[in-house]
Here is the input.
Amino acid sequence: MPETGRWTLSPIVLIAGVAILVVTGLLLNRHDSRAAPLVLWDEGGIAPPALAGQAAATPAAKPPTLAPPIRARVGLQVGHWESDELPVELAILRTERGANAGGFAEVDINYAIAGRVAALLTARGITVDLLPATVPPGYTADAFIAIHSDYNNSPAMGGFKLARFRDSAIPARDDALIAAITTEYGAATGQGRDGYITRAMTGYYAFNGADFRHAIASQTPGVIIELGFLTNPADRALLTERQETVAAGLAGGIIRFLTGA
Ligand SMILES: [Zn+2]
Here is the structure.
């Protein structure tokens, strides 16, 4: 095919053309008093001329890039919630109401934080089960987190801690969940860690499918978190007045685990 006949628009020709159109438009507007109040410059694809003392129009900001939804199921157990409805096999825990300090009941703190975490996870596309003290038999999910708050006779005792089942069938997965939450929760709250892990935590009933029907499946990664001490003034202020921060840290840790970040 011969090249003759092809015509290329040079930038100079384009600029000259636009300038002519702009000047013509200004002249027309000046001389036609019946014209509409102002020429709509955004029509016709011609950029408006910058007026003196006015910054040139900036291009519209790009919409934020939305993170893809996370296809996962997470169980959040509210420690002590509806404990009076625990089954016979766990009847001994029906009167375990949790900590009380400074006018706050642990179950209320656990519930409020769990609800906020659930909202944050749901917003990322994650399916969340808000579970009471009674866990459905063989509960299966991509992660299970039992949410509790701690207490101690000494108000000096503070910090958060996490533990998994001592007889876990998937200790490496559980430990990965612990590590992810520890990183994000610690960074968000600025809280220190309490390293004293009790036997009650590592033998938590909801992990123990060998002894109880109402426990998670052995292949469900599960951890228990003590968010902080209700008996410690700084921890109590965090858990009651900065719940959005606490929830963001916990949700961030769960997402970190699920996404392998
Ligand atoms: Zn508790």
Q: What stands out?
A: Residues 1-9, 13-56 have pLDDT under 50 and may be disordered. The chain has two domains: 9-61, 73-259. The first strand starts at residue 73 and ends at 78. Helices lie at 11-31, 106-123, 171-189, 199-202, 233-241, 243-259.
